[in-house]
């Protein structure tokens, strides 16, 4: 397949899960890639984040699929690191056709809104909302100069609906959907498209080192198996979403096949939000 | 010649700045060294100048794919080189070195490559500097904004190979300048850059009078706007592949790659946003042809290299001609009878006196036809019809055709002299007129319309009518180069073809109401009359005085519910103004407006388009010529049309054909200017009694096809549409009228006192069509007054041919070539027209009138007197609109166009306004 032939795509949070699925599918579709993840823990986040080994694993899979890959650790809370990442992408590939803002954290969570500590609240918004904004801030000038580009923000059904005891996460993802719509209007005259994908319950694919369902279960203090059962019950289809499903939507939004699509949210949620 | 596609336009800037050098390494030691240096061990100079990556390919296919990708990537903003090593298996690799060509000389890429491959121990950046260029001039021949405008254009290139030669850069430049000149770019300026071992130099080049190329290094101006450029790069023999730019940095860019001085290939590239790929392909052929001739050391042709005949095009025009069954002579009458049978009671023709149905039209024209036959009219008899614009005129024209005759419409408003000329020139046997004044030395039977109509029905009932229309239906006289008008003989079948070619596209039907706005002696009316009658519509004949007033015409259109309107653009602009002064949109019934007769300025249509949007009223611009039966091409005009379409007159009608030809008669390539030749169903029989002229203008080409050489200048786009660029000779079009300036000059020069005369068109300020006026300069002996000449001209020429001004000069200034110096003549225009001095009138006008006078002369572009009537001193309906807006601004905002039409001299309007203000 070559839906992304000759395209250069920057993917954040590419170390595992949906990010890794997006990277591998993009490589299979002919893209060259700039992959990044944090590689170190964050203090207020109660679970281990991607390691540099996991990022390297993704990069290796992509190279095997034929892509040229730049893999680089970066903390998206640091503007300088984001800038350097984008500079390296342009030095290596000369342009950036698409950005996939996938990096995000699912916890701290599991409590009512007033029970969040300030640092907890701040880190959720800083990673999930300000992180994508920083990447846009660094990459949009490149796309403006090129005269084209596609920005894909991986939000969540939590960007469309409320989730009990996940106020911080939900607020950040609703914010990301708002950022998507406004930025779409900002850049539409210059042929840069901005869209969001809202995945619903995604199962943890072990081959991708998937982790999110476990984070949710841990936040709510229930067993992983129970959370999986709850997720399956909540969707309309007979199965929950796989990371590959999300990657398919990403490929479409990054490709020329969606060249008249901007400012929209694509729910890949097995019918969760239709209920 | 191989075609290539390059970066999309959005990336042209960066891609145009990117040069790439590809080296294939097959020495394992060199590969290992490159990898080691790139990953860690390179010296500080190298690390400061370049950044490297290593990629591994698992298979030969993957290696080729990676090489393809790497060699197409634009360079980023970094001043560093980008070096990628693609390794494959044991000891083989590709080294791809890319850098910004504007800041990094090609030589530095080679130095980096040599250092990595182990050919040199150290990397030395050298000290040759970069060159940055400004954007060039957009080539007018490239026909930008073609059918894919708005998408993301790519740049395209053609690679010329098998050129092994030591061609000097100056020869490449000469061939480029010659090619550009063939495409109409006179005095082209090109950029010439040479990169070789140890040097990089830039120069600009032009072609001198003798067709030699001049390259000037000293006067090189990097901010100059170049038409094209050559990047000439000389590489060492083993250097691998070098791509001087990924996209063209200049409007047309030639990248010439040599190795050790020998030319290997030339890539000719341009963005498709400035040169259509099909035009570029042909340009590349022309370039190759010119270059090969120059390289072969051929002697220049007699007229210099500029006149080098190009080879015929390898294939005929790829644009398919829309074939249409040709009309047959019999069908003209058959159609009109079938219309009468289909809608016997529908109104056919009306005027201010009333109207008649199709049955009436059929019956009356039959009777008149029989009467005409009784007067001796038979197949091909020429019958002059000189009547006012009424329904009766239409019935008589139809009757002439039914009788087998060929009608010759002559406007009764024409001077007697011109009418007499037509009678004699056409050898007409009969003239239908009410005028007693028409005199002729030839015996010609004069018949009044009353006589034609008075025939007792019974008396003529039995006389047989011909079954078919005559071979030629009509003769229309147009301006002639010899100083005499000439009659164009148009077959009946052509009328049928014209209607069949348009009725489907324009959805012409019995529900339509048309106006016959134009004089029957102007062929636009042929379309109005037959277009309506052959499709069952209702034809409203507009009397001349009413046609001159846009207000009354607007009232008429609204009252009659006219649906199909045919207008010259000038007349339509005035109508738009008149309609715009009404609060209500009253012309909503008009569903189709067809423009013809002169160039359209679509910017002046916006008020109409806002009021009557495209979904309700379609605007169609048509290009046409009397000799090819009214219309030739058509194009729907839309409000959102991009600017580049302003000169486009669209594509030929079904059955009509267009070819753009060089002076020698060979077809031009796309984008090359030439004469418009018209072929197909509309080509007329020729000029009446002018065999020599007919032979000159109606020609048969090498394929046996008959063409009319229009004398119009045009250019064809790859989609088969044409841009109309104006007249090639002195024939001009002013406000829709085709005027041969020599004809006016001939009349002036016939006066015994006149020694010399020059007639020219002055574009006026800003070069707007509305300011165009005819100026006549004359050199005379004795006391000849301009008024005397004007009287003579009025007696012999139609009003539209009268010069706006007659200017007496002591002598016609000449240019260095001995030709009349138009520029010098126009500079002498500061003096007002010679006239009877009227100091009293000037005084009477008083100081307040000065403002009126100055506005008048500003709009007309020349000095005027207080009593000069606007429409007799160069004014027209379009200028009247401009005069109104100037008067509204400076005098009184309540003025209307109607006031201007009634009080049309500066003093009259001044007096009118003085009273108005007092009231």
Characterization of the model:
The complex is a heterodimer of chains A (about 280) and B (about 900). With about 280 residues, chain A is an alpha/beta fold. Chain A contains eight helices and seven strands; from the N terminus they run βαβαβαβαβαβαααβ. Chain A has a seven-stranded parallel β-sheet with strand order 3-2-1-4-5-6-7, sandwiched between helices. Chain B has 28 helices and 39 strands. In chain B, strands 24, 25, 26, 27, 28, 29, 30, 32, 33 and 34 form a ten-stranded mixed β-sheet that branches. Chain B has an eight-stranded mixed β-sheet with strand order 1-6-13-12-10-7-8-9. Classes of the chains: A alpha/beta (about 280), B alpha/beta (about 900). The interface of A and B includes residues 66 and 147 of A.
Q: How do you describe this structure in short?
A:
Chain A is an alpha/beta fold and 275 residues long. Chain A is built from 8 helices and 7 strands; from the N terminus they run βαβαβαβαβαβαααβ.
Note the overall shape of chain B: elongated
Tell me the β content of chain B: 15-25%
Count the strands of chain B? Answer: 39
Question: End-to-end distance of chain B, in Å?
Answer: 81 Å
- Please give the radius of gyration of chain B in angstroms: 34 Å
Q: What's the average pLDDT of chain B?
A: 82
The gyration radius over C-alpha positions of chain A equals: 17 Å
Number of strands of chain A: 7
Low-pLDDT ranges of chain A = none
Please describe the biggest sheet of chain A, giving its number of strands, its sense, and whether it closes into a barrel.
7 strands, parallel
Mean pLDDT over all positions of chain A: 94
Largest interface: A-B, 18 and 26 residues
Gross morphology of chain A is: globular
Question: Secondary-structure element sequence of chain A?
Answer: EHEHEHEHEHEHHHE
């Amino acid at each position: 397949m070559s839906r992304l032939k000759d395209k250069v795509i920057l993917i954040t949070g590419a170390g595992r899960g949906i990010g890794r699925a997006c990277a591998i599918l993009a490589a299979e579709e002919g893209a060259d890639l700039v992959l990044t993840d944090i590689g170190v823990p964050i203090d207020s986040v109660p679970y281990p984040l991607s390691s540099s080994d996991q990022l390297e694993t993704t990069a290796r899979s992509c190279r095997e699929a034929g892509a040229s890959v730049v893999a680089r650790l970066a903390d998206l809370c640091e503007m300088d690191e984001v800038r350097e990442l984008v500079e390296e992408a342009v030095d290596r590939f000369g342009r950036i056709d698409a950005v996939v803002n996938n990096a995000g954290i699912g916890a701290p969570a599991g409590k009512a809104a007033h029970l969040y500590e300030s640092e907890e609240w701040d880190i959720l918004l800083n990673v999930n909302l300000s992180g994508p904004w920083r990447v846009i801030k660094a990459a949009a000038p490149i796309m403006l100069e090129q005269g084209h580009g596609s920005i894909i923000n991986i939000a969540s059904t939590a960007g469309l609906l409320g989730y009990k005891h996940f106020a911080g996460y939900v607020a950040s993802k609703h914010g990301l959907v708002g950022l998507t719509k406004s930025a779409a209007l900002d850049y539409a005259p210059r042929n840069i498209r901005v869209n969001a994908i809202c995945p619903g319950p995604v199962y943890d694919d072990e081959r991708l080192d998937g982790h999110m369902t476990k984070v949710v279960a841990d936040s709510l203090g229930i067993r992983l198996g129970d959370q999986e059962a709850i997720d399956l019950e909540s969707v309309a289809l007979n199965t929950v979403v796989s990371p590959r499903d999300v990657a398919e939507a990403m490929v479409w939004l990054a490709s020329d096949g969606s060249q008249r699509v901007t400012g929209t949210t694509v729910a890949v949620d097995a019918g969760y939000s239709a209920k | 010649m191989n075609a290539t596609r390059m970066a999309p336009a959005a990336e042209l800037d960066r891609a145009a700045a990117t040069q790439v050098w590809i080296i294939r390494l097959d020495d394992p030691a060199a590969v290992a060294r490159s990898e080691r240096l790139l990953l860690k061990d390179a010296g500080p100079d190298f690390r400061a100048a370049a950044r490297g990556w290593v990629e591994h390919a698992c298979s030969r296919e993957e290696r080729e794919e990676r090489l393809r990708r790497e060699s197409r990537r634009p360079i980023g903003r970094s001043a560093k080189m980008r070096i990628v090593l693609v390794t494959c298996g044991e000891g083989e690799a590709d080294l791809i070195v890319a850098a910004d060509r504007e800041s990094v000389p090609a030589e530095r890429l080679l130095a980096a490559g040599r250092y990595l491959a182990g050919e040199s121990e150290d990397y030395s950046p050298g000290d040759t500097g970069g060159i940055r260029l400004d954007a060039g001039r957009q080539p007018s021949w490239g026909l930008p904004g073609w059918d894919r405008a708005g998408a993301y254009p790519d740049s395209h290139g053609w690679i010329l190979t098998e050129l092994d030669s030591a061609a000097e850069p100056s020869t490449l430049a000469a061939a480029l300048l010659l090619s550009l000149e063939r495409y109409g770019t006179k005095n082209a300026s090109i950029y010439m850059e040479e990169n070789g071992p140890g040097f990089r130099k830039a120069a600009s080049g032009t072609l001198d009078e003798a067709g030699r190329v001049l390259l000037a290094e000293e006067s090189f101006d990097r901010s100059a706007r170049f038409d094209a450029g050559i990047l000439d790069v000389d590489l060492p023999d083993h250097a691998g592949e070098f791509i001087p730019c990924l996209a063209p940095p200049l409007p047309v860019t030639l990248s010439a790659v040599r190795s050790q001085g020998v030319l290997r290939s030339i890539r000719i590239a341009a963005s498709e946003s400035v040169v259509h790929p099909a035009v570029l392909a042909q340009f590349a052929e022309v370039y190759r042809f010119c270059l090969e001739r120059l390289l072969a050391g051929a002697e220049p042709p007699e007229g210099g290299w500029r006149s080098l005949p190009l080879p015929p095009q390898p294939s005929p025009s790829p644009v398919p001609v829309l074939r249409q069954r040709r009309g047959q002579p019999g069908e003209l009458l058959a159609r009109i009878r079938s219309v009468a049978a289909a809608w016997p009671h529908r109104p056919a023709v009306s005027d201010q006196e009333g109207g008649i149905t199709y049955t009436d039209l059929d019956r009356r024209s039959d009777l008149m036809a029989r009467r005409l036959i009784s007067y001796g009219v038979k197949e091909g008899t020429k019958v002059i019809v000189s009547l006012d614009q009424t329904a009766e005129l239409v019935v008589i024209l139809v009757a002439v055709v039914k009788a087998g005759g060929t009608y010759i419409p002559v406007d009764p408003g024409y001077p007697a002299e011109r009418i007499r000329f037509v009678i004699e020139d056409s050898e007409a046997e009969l003239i239908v007129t009410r005028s007693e004044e028409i005199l002729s030395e030839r015996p010609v039977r004069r018949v009044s319309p009353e006589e034609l109509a008075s025939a007792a029905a019974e008396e003529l009932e039995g006389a047989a009518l011909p079954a078919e229309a005559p071979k030629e239906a009509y003769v229309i006289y147009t301006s002639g180069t010899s100083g005499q008008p000439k009659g164009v003989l148009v077959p009946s079948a052509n009328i049928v073809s014209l209607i069949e070619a348009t009725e489907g596209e324009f959805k012409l039907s019995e529900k339509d109401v048309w106006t016959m706005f134009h004089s029957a002696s102007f062929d636009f009316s042929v379309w109005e009359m037959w277009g309506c009658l052959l499709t069952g519509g209702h034809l409203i004949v507009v009397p001349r005085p009413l046609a001159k007033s846009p207000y009354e015409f607007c009232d008429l259109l609204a009252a009659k519910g006219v649906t199909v309107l045919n207008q010259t653009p000038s007349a339509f602009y005035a109508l738009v103004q008149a309609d715009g002064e009404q609060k209500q949109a009253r012309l909503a019934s008009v569903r189709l407006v067809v423009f013809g007769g002169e160039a359209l300025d679509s910017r002046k249509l916006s008020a109409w388009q806002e009021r009557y949007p495209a979904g309700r009223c379609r605007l169609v611009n048509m290009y046409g010529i009397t000799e090819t039966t009214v219309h030739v091409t058509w194009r729907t005009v839309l409000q959102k049309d991009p600017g580049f379409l302003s000169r486009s007159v669209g594509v030929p009608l079904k059955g009509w054909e267009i070819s753009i030809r060089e002076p020698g008669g060979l077809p031009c390539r796309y984008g090359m200017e030439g004469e418009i030749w018209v072929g197909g169903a509309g080509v007329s029989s020729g000029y009446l009694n002018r065999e020599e002229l007919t032979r000159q203008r109606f020609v048969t080409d090498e394929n046996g096809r008959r063409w009319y050489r229009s004398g119009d200048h045009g250019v064809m786009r790859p989609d088969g549409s044409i841009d109309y660029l104006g007249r090639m000779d002195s024939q001009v079009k002013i406000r829709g009228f085709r005027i041969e300036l020599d004809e006016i000059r001939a009349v002036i020069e016939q006066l015994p006192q006149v020694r010399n005369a020059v007639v020219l068109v002055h574009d006026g300020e800003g070069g707007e069509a509305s300011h165009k006026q005819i100026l006549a300069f004359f050199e005379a002996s004795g006391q000849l007054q301009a008024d005397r000449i004007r009287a003579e001209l009025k007696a012999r020429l139609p009003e539209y041919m009268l010069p706006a001004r007659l200017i007496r000069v002591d002598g016609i200034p000449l240019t260095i070539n001995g030709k009349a110096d138009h520029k010098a003549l126009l500079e002498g225009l500061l003096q007002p027209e010679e006239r009877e001095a009227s100091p009293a009138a000037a005084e009477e006008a008083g100081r307040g009138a000065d403002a009126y006078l100055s506005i008048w002369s500003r709009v007309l572009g020349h000095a005027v007197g207080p009593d000069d009537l606007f429409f007799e001193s160069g004014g027209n309906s379009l200028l009247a609109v401009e005069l109104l807006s100037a008067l509204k601004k400076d005098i009184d905002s309540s003025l209307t166009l109607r006031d201007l039409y009634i009080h049309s001299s500066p003093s009259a309007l001044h007096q009118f306004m003085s009273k108005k203000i007092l009231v």
